[in-house]
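[job 0412] stage=complex_fold ligand=zinc ion status=START
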Amino acid sequence: MYTLGIETSCDETSCAVLKKYRVLANTTVSSLREHAKFGGVVPEIATRAHLKNIDRVLKICLQRAKVSLDQIDLIACTYKPGLIGALVVGLNFAKALALALKKPFVGVNHLHAHLFAPFLNSRAKLEFPFLGLVVSGGHTEIYHVDDFDKIRIVGQTRDDACGEAYDKVARALQLGYPGGPVIDSLFNPRYKNDFPFRCGRMGFDLSFSGIKTALMYKKMEIERTKKLDKKTKIRLISSFQESVVTTIVNTILDAAKKSKIKRVVCGGGVVANRYLRSRLAAEATDLQLLIAPLEYAPDNAAIVAGLGFYLYRRRARESNFNLRAEA
Ligand code: KG4
Ligand code: ZN
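[job 0412] stage=complex_fold status=DONE, emitting structure tokens
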């Protein structure tokens, strides 16, 4: 059973071929560099890049997997959430392929797919219920997962997504784009309490917009008396990351305590963060912690194919061809 996965929700054009849950190839081309000078993803540029790249990405992916198109049994594609133009490219490509090949097609929610990452290649055993933590550039959500089609939101950001805050803070300090990996590598625990930045938390809901603004005001205050040097930037981002990571870790631990669920699954681009991974591992000691492997943490088609195959098997039916992309 071969599944072809397609993901185009943001700036990554990605195709993957899985044999059941084993990843044979996962090929991604990103338009990241085309967005860098704008400090964030420009939807029109991302959409055009998907159109330009998707044929080539599929071809390379099939070559790497050593599987031909007519061997594919199922086509899974992200239909939500994401940039609408970007989603439409992948979704219509997937539907057209499914029609032409006369193969079933299944639409996948890409946030839920982030939670499938630890289960690819049968690394971890899939057991329910679990708490899901998705932290990415567009979303920050905590879910109660009874199954992949029985998912309830427990908490979410009320404003910016966590990754968005990383990107905006890095942009304000002229550290480059995307901000997450830069802040991750510059973080120095020695400076983590230098500034009293705080993220917002209301129950299991979070807020990252205030801490971003607080950091920008602090930067302006410093710049009134001296030029912002590299060390001060590192002190600022270290205090920022300390608060973000502490808030996320505490929230998920509290959610686990309240729900009495002992299993936590984490995915999304920000989960690549080394400090977040180490704090989770150190503090969630009485929980079963399943964190997306680094290669499957950001947006990619392998997680979409894995979840698509799971849902198709569970429901034994394909998605309707009228399925629309949802922003
Ligand atoms: O899941 P993802 O690839 O795309 C979305 O669905 O948004 O996440 C991208 C986000 C970006 O905001 C990026 O800055 C952030 O993930 N990110 C990180 C790290 N690597 C990527 N944030 C913190 N630390 C990292 N190492
Ligand atoms: Zn994502």
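The mean pLDDT is 97.
[job 0412] exit 0
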